[in-house]
Design goal:
Radius of gyration: 29 Å
Number of domains: 2
Pfam family, one: DUF5696
CATH class of the largest domain: Mainly Beta
Strand content: 25-35%
Low-confidence stretches: 1-26
Oligomer: single chain
Number of helices: 11
Structural class: alpha+beta
Mean pLDDT: 92
InterPro entries: DUF5696
Length: 794
């Protein structure tokens, strides 16, 4: 197609590339929240080393201090003279104001005395002062229907004490929340890269444990903003009508929304909600309601990783990244914008121990709110690493790139990620095949076949003849009845779609082409037409089956979720049968990206997480597994990551989209973009595919998609192979030309050299320059055509 002819691959051999510069930009490129903008400005101020605080630990990189009366830990980074604090370190306004006014009332003062004594005070109430200083914040519900209480460790109403462990690299803070009968101990471990916090489950003492909702660790770590009240030396008073904003370092917060998003430290001048992302999604069976409506519009993306961070300055100065090592399945990432009530930017984590749910007692939905009988039990280990510089010494610059590299390093060391051992010289491509679905007929369902297995064989042979290499794909709706009736319990082949022997023949054909075809199966989504709910569907904590009401459904109107134990059993049986048929791979939906507990089988989400991980890890020794948006803890067993997000949710709060997720896991699993025949095929989409180092994917049928128009698969609006054959070839060739030179390489850096112009650097001295703009640009002497890219070998 002519649409893609301008997107041509160039390989330029350059003797040396010392630095990256830009020139000859003819028209300004206006980025939006889907883009990554240029780095912020340099830091305008720093916090000096807090030598007036108690020294806890000193090593080659950091000095750690503590101020007991304000409950604040300070980390001084010797590498860049930057000090991070876990709270705002704000003194009580009343004390400062009383000292000042006592001097004024006594008289005999000089202007210098006023300047020295009547210092500006922060525009905070006493409760807000406690909050911004607190190391540990507990949310507690002492009465159903009442407002949640926030209990601040820095408050004078409670008691906190810091004690030394075996040596000065280990301390623990004990917090006693007095009349609420809650005691929590948090351990602090200091090292040469940062600090680790640990809350051990058995060291949480709560008289009524079900009322403990959340615990947040250092919610004001690295926070900035707020307002101060200067002393009026004419009226001789503090007047909060003249509050001024505190200076703020330029920078941004990173949140793991979709592929990754940045929230710049800029006032939006409008009220916007804070970001709250449940890591791995909601624990559906314990949240408020047992029902969910499947939205007609795009739903918010989940927090894909248990990680967040804050960066200050121009991406080469100071930053931290924080990630959960334990307790991640109960973690939420929270980011508060500058336009919040208190006027501070914050990004932190909170861990969910309990929540109110709706107890329903009749079919009409009447009920009441209640708490579970007990809280969740788990350990928390939260790690903070501090980054500085441009990454030239350690490969971890003080930016979202450095955050990704630091988290990737942890995952590799923990064995969660393993570099792919691949001999491919051309990139792979994902092509799924939608076989059939069912529509409502006079006497039940009528099967609508859009693709047969013989059709699949013919399509892949055609693509191979056109030099599309390393194809893998899944068959969707391959059982009798198609998509809506493809039961994870069964392996029910049918002659209308393809018999068991036909599938075996398809496997042989695919293997002869160097391709791989698998049966795609959702092991968690079920319905009453597929199987009985009794004993197979999971129940919400309120005793009702958890149900999903479908919008614009043509056939089945309600779906349910399978019991985790059953899903694992079905997966085992399915894999064994695929191996018996000579299959080399399986494609897993549902179980790869949903995580919920089952109180009726006595399974917490930790139990389910471990069960899924252990099962898939064991199966991966015998078979290749592709997973739909798999959770990070499964990536040691899943080799193909399908439908990886390439955008964030694009909340108003977010200013930039970044490929953080891709930078973390690139080179350890194969990453596949969303289907290109579903609005991801424009010139700039292909550029984003190259920029984000993800491979193309398509979903196809032999027949026109209107064949499925009266089925639940009517959302697959354009799939016919003859309409996409040329496009598949073109996009594959473009992506392959750009990304094959970096197969197996580590993605080192991503630099925005000009709005709309990106340079990605890899370990084999390859740079890929992506130009999203409508004009030719020159980068380090290399001309990159408008809406195109350039591969440069140094």
């Amino acid at each position: 197609m002519a649409l893609y002819k301008s997107l041509i691959k160039h390989i330029v051999l350059v003797l040396a590339v010392v630095s990256v510069t830009t020139a000859v930009v003819f028209a300004e490129y206006i980025p939006n929240s889907r883009d990554t903008k240029e780095a912020p400005d340099e830091i305008v101020y720093t916090i000096s080393e807090p030598e007036d605080m108690e020294l806890l630990h000193d090593n080659d990189r950091f000095t750690f201090y503590f101020r007991d009366e304000r409950d604040v830990l300070a980390i001084y980074d010797k590498a860049n003279d930057f000090t991070y604090k876990t709270g705002m370190d704000v003194p009580m306004n009343d004390d400062l104001e009383d000292t000042c006014m006592d001097m004024i009332d006594a008289g005999g003062y000089t202007p210098q005395d006023v300047e020295d004594t009547c210092v500006p005070i922060q525009d905070l109430s006493s409760a807000a002062r406690d909050y911004v200083n607190s190391f540990l914040v507990v949310e507690y519900l002492d009465e159903i229907g009442a407002r949640t209480r926030r209990l601040y460790s820095a408050s004078d109403d409670y008691r906190s004490s810091l004690s030394r462990g075996d040596d000065d690299s280990h301390w623990f803070l004990d917090v006693d929340y007095g009349r609420y009968d809650i005691e929590v101990r948090v351990h602090l471990y200091f090292d040469e890269e940062g600090v680790t916090y640990e809350i051990r489950d058995h060291e949480i003492d709560v008289v009524e444990p079900e009322k403990l909702l959340n615990i947040s660790i250092t919610p004001f770590m690295g926070a900035q903003g707020g307002y101060y009240i200067p002393f009026d030396d004419v009226e001789l008073e503090y007047n909060d009508d003249f509050a001024e904003p505190n200076p703020i370092n330029p920078g941004y917060s990173f949140i793991p929304d979709g592929s990754g998003a940045l929230i710049r430290y800029e006032d939006t001048n409008i009220d916007v909600d804070e970001y709250v992302g449940d890591v791995y999604g909601d624990n559906l069976t314990s949240y408020y309601s047992h029902t969910k409506d499947a939205l007609e519009y795009l739903e918010a993306k989940t927090a894909t990783l248990p990680v967040f961070g804050m960066s200050y300055g121009d991406d080469t100065e100071a930053a931290f990244v924080a990630y959960a090592i334990e307790g991640d399945e109960y973690m939420q990432v929270v980011s508060v914008p500058l336009s919040s009530t208190l006027g501070y930017v914050q990004t932190y984590s909170t861990f969910v121990y309990s929540n109110v749910y709706r107890q329903v007692y009749n079919d009409r939905g009447d009920g009441y709110d209640r708490l579970p009988d007990d809280r969740q039990h788990f350990d928390v280990v939260l790690r903070y690493e501090f980054l500085q510089g441009d990454g030239s010494t350690d490969g971890k610059p003080a930016s979202y790139v450095g955050m990704a590299m630091a988290y990737r390093e942890y995952l590799l060391e923990a064995g969660i990620l393993t570099p792919l051992n691949s001999s491919l010289t051309d990139i792979p491509i994902r092509v799924d095949f939608l076989m059939a679905d069912s529509k409502t007929g006079i006497f039940g369902y009528e099967e609508q076949v859009a693709t047969t297995m013989d059709d699949v064989a013919a399509m892949i042979e055609t693509l191979h003849e056109r030099n599309v290499m390393n194809l893998n794909g899944g068959l969707l709706g391959w059982q009798d009845g198609g998509m809506i009736l493809t039961s994870p319990k069964d392996m029910d082949f049918t002659n209308s779609i393809g018999s068991k022997s036909t599938f075996e023949e398809l496997l042989v054909t695919a293997a002869s082409l160097g391709y791989d075809i698998s049966l795609s199966q959702d092991f968690l989504t079920i319905n009453e037409d597929m199987m009985s709910l009794l004993g197979d569907a999971v129940k919400h904590n309120n005793g009702k089956y958890y149900e999903i009401n479908l919008a614009n459904s043509q056939t089945v109107m309600t779906e349910y979720l399978a019991k985790p134990n059953n899903a694992v059993s079905w997966l085992d049986d399915h894999t064994e049968e695929v191996l018996d048929l000579g299959g080399d791979s399986i494609t897993v939906y549902g179980l790869s990206n949903l995580l919920y507990g089952d109180s009726y089988d006595d399974l917490t989400i930790t139990d389910v997480k471990n069960k899924y991980h252990e099962t898939l890890l064991e199966l991966s020794t015998d078979i290749t597994i592709a997973g739909d948006q798999p959770h990070v803890f499964l990536l040691d067993s899943i080799e193909r990551y399908l439908n990886i997000p390439v955008y964030s949710t694009q909340f108003i709060i977010a200013s930039d989209t970044v490929p953080f997720l891709q930078m973390v896991i690139a080179g350890t699993v194969e990453l596949y973009a969303p289907y290109s025949n579903f609005s991801f095929s424009s010139e700039k989409d292909v550029l984003r595919m190259i920029d984000y180092n993800v491979y193309p994917s398509f979903v196809l049928t032999q027949q026109p998609s209107y064949v499925l128009g009266s089925t639940n698969s009517n959302e697959y609006i354009s799939t016919q192979f003859r309409d996409y054959e040329d496009l598949i070839v073109q996009i594959y060739q473009q992506a392959n030309d750009a990304l094959s030179p970096v197969l197996g390489e580590t993605w080192l850096n991503r630099l925005v050299v000009e709005n709309g112009v990106i340079v990605n650097q890899y370990t084999n001295d390859i740079q890929i320059i992506i130009n999203y703009t409508e004009d030719d640009v020159t980068v380090n002497g290399n001309v990159v055509e408008a809406t195109s890219y350039l591969v440069v070998s140094e």
